[in-house]
Design goal:
This protein is α/β, with parallel strands linked by helices and 239 residues long. The chain has a single domain, classed as NAD(P)-binding Rossmann-like Domain (Rossmann fold), CATH 3.40.50. It is 46% helix and 13% strand. The chain is built from 8 helices and 6 strands; from the N terminus they run αβαβαβαβααβααβ. The strands form 2 sheets. The chain has a 4-stranded parallel sheet, with helices on both faces. Strands 1-2 form a two-stranded parallel ribbon. The relative contact order is 0.14. The structure holds NADP nicotinamide-adenine-dinucleotide phosphate. NADP nicotinamide-adenine-dinucleotide phosphate (NAP) binds next to helix 1, strand 1 and helix 4.
């Protein structure tokens, strides 16, 4: 299950997991056309792919859509891998930040991670196997001016990753975070890529597939002893 699987990093993750043979649940908020594009790309790889439309910022919608899916699928299907990827940016300096800009960013990344994970955790724990990956950011590690809301949301996810990892380690459920730097996607389309690339040692933005490759490793059996970690994918940008 990948939240925010319709576009960008989430889509690349869906495709990577489909290549590994996983059936995919693709969550998205509203962009149905792109969600269907991801779904078709997964199906073309020979796996099943279902769309689950809900706002990760709404515990009510999560309960209604994901909760209902889990209940109906209980006997035949189990979510083994959860990638909490859905996120938004609403950047502005703190002095100008509205309550809405603060709460929407926190509710989507941090709140979404909490409410979605709580739904899927018990079956994973009972199954004694699971992989949870939280998409955080360089911004949550070092803090970025103009992103007090986003940095707080991602730093909160990092703390939650470390705490939850300790709660469920005995049940073979690993919980890790990936901290991308600048990755080409709709989220960064408004940034000056040429200019910003100058401060990145690799002198370029990353590709969604380069983040998805790490997800592929972290969900694999080989990564069984890695938990509670935050791993950066940022072209060497100092954190
Ligand atoms: P993106 O291209 O803007 O795509 C965002 C995805 O999240 C879309 O699939 C969108 O669904 C979904 N989404 C947004 N709000 C949602 C909500 N409330 N409920 C459900 N789905 C929601 O973003 P991206 O660049 O791929 O980023 C993916 C993740 O990586 C985010 O958490 C982001 O913070 C993190 N990240 C990105 C970068 C970067 O440079 N791109 C760097 C560090 C971290 P719809 O298509 O339906 O709108």
């Amino acid at each position: 299950m990948v939240t925010g699987g319709s576009r960008g990093i989430g889509r690349a993750v869906c495709i990577r997991l489909a290549e590994m043979g996983y059936h995919i649940l693709i969550n998205y908020k509203g962009n149905e056309t792109e969600a269907i594009n991801t779904q078709n790309a997964c199906i073309a790889l020979g796996v099943e792919a279902e769309l689950l439309r809900f706002d990760v910022g709404s515990s009510v919608e999560i309960e209604k859509v994901l909760g209902a899916w889990i209940e109906s699928a209980a006997k035949e299907k189990i979510i083994e891998v959860l990638v909490n990827n859905a996120g938004i940016r609403l950047d502005t300096l703190m002095s100008f930040m509205s309550d809405t800009q603060w709460s929407q960013v926190l509710d989507t990344s941090l709140g979404g991670m909490f409410h979605v994970t709580r739904q899927v955790l018990n079956p994973m724990v009972m199954n004694r196997f699971g992989r949870i990956i939280n998409m955080v950011s360089l911004s949550g590690l070092k803090g970025m001016a103009g992103q007090v809301n986003y940095s707080a949301a991602k730093a909160g996810m990092i703390g939650a990753t470390k705490a939850l990892a300790q709660e469920v380690a005995r049940r073979n459920v690993t919980v890790n975070a990936i901290a991308p730097g600048f990755i080409q996607s709709d989220m960064t389309a408004d940034l000056d890529e040429k200019d910003l690339s100058q401060m990145i040692p690799m002198k370029r933005f990353g590709k969604p597939e380069e983040v998805a490759a790490l997800v592929g490793f972290l969900v694999s059996k080989e990564a069984a002893y890695i938990t509670g970690q935050v791993i950066s994918v940022n072209g060497g940008l100092y954190t």
